[in-house]
Amino acid sequence: MLNIFLTLSFLVSVIAFLFALYLYLWVRKHKVENKEIERISLLIKKGADTFIKREYKLLAAFELAVFILILIFFPQPVWKGSISGNVLTAFAYILGSIFSALAGKIGILVATLSNGRCAEGAKKGLKDAFLIGFRGGAVMGLLVVGCCLFGVALVLLLTNDTGVLLGFSFGASSLALFAKAGGGIFTKSADVAADLTGKVELGIAEDDPRNPAVIADNVGDNVGDVAGMGADLFDSNVAAMTSALVIASSLSGSVAAMEMVFCYALLGLLASILGIAAARVGKDGNPTRALNSSTYVTTAIFLILTAAATYFVEGFSWNIWLSSATGLIVGLIIGLTTDYFTDDTKPVVRKVAHASASGAAFTILSGTSYGFVSCLPAMAGIAVSSLISYQLCAPLGEGYAIFGIAMAAVGMLSIVGMIISNDAYGPIVDNARGLAEMGGLGEETIRIADELDSAGNTVKAVTKGFSIGAAGLTVISLLGAFMSETNAALAEAGKPLITGFDIMNPTVFFGLLVGAAIPALFSAMLILGVDKNAQRMVEEIHRQFSTIPGLKEGNAQPEYSQCIDIAAKGALKELIPAGLMTIITTLLVGFIAGPLAIGGFLVGNIVSGLLLALFMSNAGGLWDNSKKYIESGNEGGKGSDAHKAAVIGDTVGDPYKDTAGPSINTQITVVSLVASLASALFASFSLFG
Amino acid sequence: MLNIFLTLSFLVSVIAFLFALYLYLWVRKHKVENKEIERISLLIKKGADTFIKREYKLLAAFELAVFILILIFFPQPVWKGSISGNVLTAFAYILGSIFSALAGKIGILVATLSNGRCAEGAKKGLKDAFLIGFRGGAVMGLLVVGCCLFGVALVLLLTNDTGVLLGFSFGASSLALFAKAGGGIFTKSADVAADLTGKVELGIAEDDPRNPAVIADNVGDNVGDVAGMGADLFDSNVAAMTSALVIASSLSGSVAAMEMVFCYALLGLLASILGIAAARVGKDGNPTRALNSSTYVTTAIFLILTAAATYFVEGFSWNIWLSSATGLIVGLIIGLTTDYFTDDTKPVVRKVAHASASGAAFTILSGTSYGFVSCLPAMAGIAVSSLISYQLCAPLGEGYAIFGIAMAAVGMLSIVGMIISNDAYGPIVDNARGLAEMGGLGEETIRIADELDSAGNTVKAVTKGFSIGAAGLTVISLLGAFMSETNAALAEAGKPLITGFDIMNPTVFFGLLVGAAIPALFSAMLILGVDKNAQRMVEEIHRQFSTIPGLKEGNAQPEYSQCIDIAAKGALKELIPAGLMTIITTLLVGFIAGPLAIGGFLVGNIVSGLLLALFMSNAGGLWDNSKKYIESGNEGGKGSDAHKAAVIGDTVGDPYKDTAGPSINTQITVVSLVASLASALFASFSLFG
């Protein structure tokens, strides 16, 4: 019976791929007539390719090293048993990375293809431009979710071993770490350097083509926001399915449970396909409403389809449907509270804008404060939904309670195809706006592009809240997966099993405190990385302005590729220590203090990671929109002291919201997966465990 | 046998009181000759009295309400048993507040007495001025620790019930919340308003007497830093002794264990007395070294005395001595790592100063990053010391493991008398520096006062790290106290006992997530409170400058008392919602989800509280010292762009390090004590527990 759902999963994935192909061709048939836009689009595409090539090269070396390590050590050291598990896990690891890389690569291709066309479309009006931007993003959304479902089903079909899926998931996480954190450093160092030299030193517009960093900045939008975000959500989605399947496989009714996982995932993808196909700007021409209503439509379709499946398929439980629905609805609520803190029609953004009139210190203090406040509703939401799903599913039998939480995560991520489409829409229309300016398409076109862009910023807040919430639930279920993996290893070693992680146990508490410090350290390393890299680029820009004659006057071309090169090289260089730090501390804690300490470590990591991720994403969004609110003529408007203060807030918020904040998700997943993969080793070899 | 140690505790407390009296008289016999200094000293003293009077009035109302609540509900609702426990707890609660209030009140008296004398002393040279500042602070240190030891011994002698001590400790915490958070809002709103109007708008010096907020600013140093810090450490110290005694009373060898608690506490006070008596500025005239070396001397004396006691007294265990020593040494190490991040001779401060040259956004980003980095060593230190003490003491018998952690906290806090002396020295010499400027004592005197002030800032970092570390260990042992209280209540109600708080239990996890969000919300409320209150004061200053003729020219006196009034009223008004929020959420979580959720709630609170407290204290200290480093002529010196950026960093850091950061300690303790006091209620009445 499981095979039916695997087959259906392949089928829906293929439908998603075909629909993505259709949308790709639809976008491509729009033509770019403006020569300047065509030229710059090409530069952006080339720049993105440069980064991707570099990133994938570095990643290949990293993957090879991990591949060998897995072959030797994970899940069992070769000298302790058969090697087949290690070989399968190692190949699954590679496969996970390849699937994610593929989705990212194609997504960037489409995004860089759509931006110019979207700008041209804006000449004809809002409707066309919106659809080009949205459908370009949707290609990414469909591919990411399709690859996820296809890959997970494929690995399970071939190996029939949920443990191997941890390898697949770890592959996805490795890539997400490179794509999200590396892309985040890339995009923000380019952005900051472009702002510092362009707006501040030279007094030229944001997208002025004389600035050598301007193309790097546009490339950054694509590699950080499109590819990075796609890899991040691919990772979360795979991790949610993996942990649900690992837990499901140890249940008494394991077949039905595993069927449910695939059924919910494939119906979620189907719902996203329908939601994407239905998206249009209505008569009122409000793109924000169009994006949001397609999210609600997708949610409704998903709930109806899964209810039908629960009704018709034998062994499917209503309690699990309710858990999943709870997860999805809480995801929406978290998104809406995020929106409350970052939307400029709501009081918080206006208060921060008003505080800016007293100086930059007040911009920072008030933004930081509201960022902290914004953590409570989201964390309480995650807490309540995990409690509800647990209570709903506990009566179903042993192990079902944690499975309920895993299914809440699957539910929250079910509409991820839609979420990614909305999210990838943002950087496409952002780029389109820049291109419209650089190509001189006229004020009306720029105004339309602006409107599209502002809608992108608004829905971004919602989707970010969503993805952090989903990551929260996923890692809770990964904790369950870690425990079942550890107990399997302990049982094999003839040692007493772990019954839980008691906070009063000092080994657990030790892990908890150390684990809580890691996301803070990780974020700090990324932010400092952005700082350093931006400084390097500023030096390069100064060099170009002083050595290229006629550049300032616009008679000569800047060497864009130099800046792209610096951004790419530096991003990867700054990323590696942060990535290694998280993996090494996990292994250190495990080998020193054993599985109990790792349990605490994972929880400390989740709790402080969620807190910091929410804080940084929301404070960053808040500062960004406060600045925009002032720029639209409030508190003295552009050029006022309040505006200068708000620009400082925005610059602080940039690496918060686009580098560190969203990378913490990935960091948590990486740590959880490393712990699960190494659980057998920790169970056998630990100093004080 | 316990009575011997109680008697000795009274004896050593009285010695401390007498020594404090001697130091007070010694400080008082120095005369203030400068009329201006005398006049301003008096204004500061009056201002501090105004705040203290207001605060104590509000506190009295609050205390009365809590007194009645305790009488009716805690530890057992009156309708469920005898009322005697409630009566004792209620009176112990009042006593705890009175003792803390007394220590704070006298401390302020001495501090406001010492500042003018210290300024005058600086005319004669470093040695005298140092001793006046240090001994003024020492009066506070001796009184706080003496009151703590005396009070705890008294309550135990009278009631012979460690449970009643929770009431005493809660009394101390309530006061600390008012004193620390209220004082923190007071001092920073005055500071920020004075800076904004004086330095920024009018371009007059920091301590210019024309500024109506300048006296409020000086008052703030006393009410926030002296009284607030004293109340905070009184609270931590009482909480550490209380939790150790509550746990000790449930052990098999309870008498010896309780004896140890008193023995260690009284020897710590004795060691502090000796260390204070020995403190002198050496021939090299380095006040930082003098302060640090007296800390080391006290540490050594304490370790030797407790080793001797362990050797001679029957039933004292070396394992516990080692735990206690571990706590103390880890405390020192945490202090030193804090120093590394905030001392301007070390690289971090210089890097942040250098980053400021690129603009304020980089000041904020780099300071935030290093603040995050600084959390790891301290959290790992707390984690390691709790793990070591647990492992050391677990072999002694059931319950001893947690007792070991409690004794590590007692050890870390043993030299708190010395710590407070060093810490109170800071605001005294800071005030003295201001007075020297206002009194026109000449450049050489100001230079000496500056040197004393800078030493105060340096050791402040160490003592802050120390007090956060101690709070961390104390709340871990309070968690143990909460569990034993809950189990006593559960046993009485005939319900199954709690064996621990398993993170995999969703009720615990629910509490964990919600608890982790509370310190963030609490800090945000305090920071926003400072913001709002500073805005009110800025308005008042503007009013005075526009309505008092001749004020700007120095021909008229500003109305200092108006600003003091605004600071005091506003501080208490802003504090109340934050304080109530922490108490109400604790009760809500307990009554909704029961004792297991509260266990998670406390741990979430500790973990995120420690993280945020360390981050804010260290980032704030870092920005403060970066600004000073630039002011001493680096990165362009005063007036440069780097300096302007550093001033923004410092303004952001002020409420971080002096309002929110140190108040989080108290918030954690309040939450832990409320939970312990209400444990019987949670055990009987909870919706889903």
Please provide a brief summary of the model.
The structure is a homodimer of 689-residue chains. Chain A is mainly alpha-helical and 689 residues long.
Helices and strands, with pairings:
Two copies of one chain form a homodimer.
Chain A: H1 2-28, H2 35-73, H3 84-124, H4 126-159, H5 162-202, H6 214-249, H7 254-278, H8 287-312, H9 318-342, H10 347-356, H11 360-373, H12 375-393, H13 400-414, H14 416-438, H15 443-492, H16 506-547, H17 560-631, H18 641-677, H19 679-684
Describe this structure in words.
The structure is a homodimer of 689-residue chains. Chain A is built from 19 helices and no strands. Chain A has helices spanning 2-28, 35-73, 84-124, 126-159, 162-202, 214-249, 254-278, 287-312, 318-342, 347-356, 360-373, 375-393, 400-414, 416-438, 443-492, 506-547, 560-631, 641-677, 679-684. In chain A, helix 12 crosses helix 13 (400-414). The radius of gyration of chain A is 24 Å and the shape is globular. Chains A and B meet through helix 5, helix 11, helix 12, helix 13 and helix 15 of A and helix 5, helix 11, helix 12, helix 13 and helix 15 of B.
